[in-house]
Amino acid sequence: MIKKNIQRIIQYRMCLLRFQSLGFERIFSYTLAQEIGVSPEQVRKDFSQFHLRGNKKAGYLIQDILDQINDLLHKEDIHKIIMVGLGNIGQALIKYKGFANRNMQLVAGFDIDPAKLKKNCRIPTFSAKEIPVVVQKENVHIGIIAVPEAAAQEVCNNMVEAGIKGILNFAPVMLKTPPDVVVQNISVCGDLEALVYVTEKNKKQES
Amino acid sequence: MIKKNIQRIIQYRMCLLRFQSLGFERIFSYTLAQEIGVSPEQVRKDFSQFHLRGNKKAGYLIQDILDQINDLLHKEDIHKIIMVGLGNIGQALIKYKGFANRNMQLVAGFDIDPAKLKKNCRIPTFSAKEIPVVVQKENVHIGIIAVPEAAAQEVCNNMVEAGIKGILNFAPVMLKTPPDVVVQNISVCGDLEALVYVTEKNKKQES
DNA sequence: ATTAAATTGTTAATTTATAAACAAAAAGAT
DNA sequence: ATCTTTTTGTTTATAAATTAACAATTTAAT
Ligand SMILES: NC(=O)c1ccc[n+]([C@@H]2O[C@H](COP(=O)([O-])OP(=O)(O)OC[C@H]3O[C@@H](n4cnc5c(N)ncnc54)[C@H](O)[C@@H]3O)[C@@H](O)[C@H]2O)c1
Ligand SMILES: NC(=O)c1ccc[n+]([C@@H]2O[C@H](COP(=O)([O-])OP(=O)(O)OC[C@H]3O[C@@H](n4cnc5c(N)ncnc54)[C@H](O)[C@@H]3O)[C@@H](O)[C@H]2O)c1
User: Fold this and answer.
1) Torsion region of A74: left, alpha or beta (phi above 0 gives left; psi -120 to 50 gives alpha)
2) How many Å does it take to go from CA A48 to C1' D10?
3) C1' of D25 to CA of B72 (Å)
4) Which residue of A has its CA nearest to B195?
5) What is the 3-state secondary structure (H, E, C) of B28-88?
6) Which of A58, A111, B60, B176 would you call most buried, defined as having the most Cβ atoms within 10 angstroms of its Cβ?
């Protein structure tokens, strides 16, 4: 549902940061394209759509493009995120150190199981009942759902009620939300099943 | 890169199983559509493309469609999967109980850190050097990469060399593989950044 | 038996996304 | 100073995906 071009812009950004850290000041559409596995025309088209301009014959000025992409992605702010469900996935995300690099911060975790709240976490944890209080106090707009399938829709409803506008969902269900709330699904099993399908198909085609 | 229609077929399957477990024998394109958030025409088109036939006025026979989708997705076999990287994400996946339901089995984990191999896991763990041995012995085609960005491409190369044909990649890099090896990326941070972009845009449009 | 209602399945239309083509500009070479 | 090469940015073309339209068929009702 989220446009492909913005997803690529996010990838270009990571790639530009990597090239910059390697000491490059400029980059060509061709290089960027190769790195993220698209055509150079796709890169130029994406850049054009977001008014990211380069220099003929001299390519793109990395710092300049990065500044503009950072603007687009609101990288001037740190974006607060809550997570509901402190099981396997929830704990893995809490331990993850990579959010800060990308201007995001997990500000609170929630669970219904009091045992899960006792673990000494890097972030404060609360009973799931506290979702509305914390969301409103901290002014959070993004939430992650890492609860079992059976609880996901209810948790989602509570998040929406509390004011969350974007949800990253690990549970294998399609959540129902009002039109102003966007959901992004992560489907580990679904992706694996798709890989099985494609690899088996390739195998057959060879023979 | 993987076709959208097969991804939806995978979703339909989960939905059909749920309806079946609720006692339903038949289902309409409209119901299925609503559940996974597409139009009924989309459902019928997808079904048509995979030759999944229903009955006019009586909808689709759930068991019948499931049998055929199971065939398509090779659900007659259990698909073996290896995982490289036994850190936060790796551990979360190892503890996950949901693979068996979907005819998939994590058969081995790998890491370069000997400390990670000592943890008493539900699956056997090996030094990363053993990847080719285990992959060939167990005849595995699918692998998961859950190592840091800096190690991902090398691990990928080793997997490909060993005979892996499909990779689920959690590291925030675009892996380079030969054309007969398919990669599916999971990008938690990227998805969150996309959510930030969309929610901020929606916010602006309202005002 | 006939008619009406409901639902599929296919074809056509539209939209979106990707790829190709090429003119324009900039840099460098002659 | 002119010509050549390179690379962007836009325009045009192609392909993929979604939506709409509608005939065909089945069931149920009259
Ligand atoms: N772990 C994986 O590798 C994996 C893989 C694919 C999909 N998933 C999906 O991700 C989700 C989480 O998986 P997991 O392995 O972390 O599960 P888990 O069972 O380890 O953790 C779920 C947590 O959610 C909490 N919870 C349950 N109901 C709740 C509620 N109403 N409010 C707040 N918290 C609640 C539980 O107490 C538990 O701590 C599941 O939907 C699962 O299907 C996980
Ligand atoms: N944990 C998260 O929530 C999260 C979120 C987004 C992205 N990711 C990405 O997922 C990947 C894994 O994240 P993590 O948090 O589990 O990292 P982690 O550091 O906890 O675990 C990585 C594991 O890989 C092992 N490793 C390193 N090099 C290896 C090699 N060459 N061969 C085999 N094993 C090797 C390490 O010993 C370690 O055990 C990273 O690329 C990370 O950027 C993780």
Assistant:
1) left
2) 9
3) 27
4) A166
5) CHHHHHHHHCCCHHHHHHHHHHCCCCCECCCEEEHHHHHHHHHHHCCCCCCEEEEEECCCH
6) B60
CA–CA gap between residue B43 and residue B30 (Å, rounded): 8
Name the residue with the least CA to C1' distance from nucleotide C8: B56
Domain ranges of chain A: 4-72, 79-189
List strand residue ranges (DSSP E) for A79-181, in order.
79-84, 104-111, 125-127, 142-145, 166-169
C-alpha A198 – ligand 2 centre gap (Å): 26
Q: How many Å apart are CA B66 and CA A194, to the nearest integer? A: 16
- Give the tens place of pLDDT for each residue, A35-68: 999 999 999 999 999 999 999 888 999 999 999 9
CATH value of A4-72 in 1.10.287.130, 1.20.1250.20, 3.30.70.890, 1.10.10.10:
1.10.10.10
Probe residue for ligand 1, chosen from A131, A134, A147, A167 as the CB with the greatest number of ligand atoms within 8 Å = A147
Q: What is the pLDDT along chain B (207 residues), one digit of tens a residue?
A: 899 999 999 999 999 999 999 999 999 999 999 999 999 999 999 999 999 999 988 899 999 999 999 999 999 999 999 999 999 999 999 999 999 999 999 999 999 999 999 777 789 999 999 999 999 999 999 999 999 999 999 999 999 999 999 999 999 999 999 999 999 999 999 999 999 999 999 988 877
Residues 6+ apart with CB under 8 A from A62: A16, A19, A20, A24, A25, A26, A27
What's the alpha-carbon Rg for chain A, to the nearest Å?
20
Q: What is the CATH number of domain A79-189?
A: 3.40.50.720
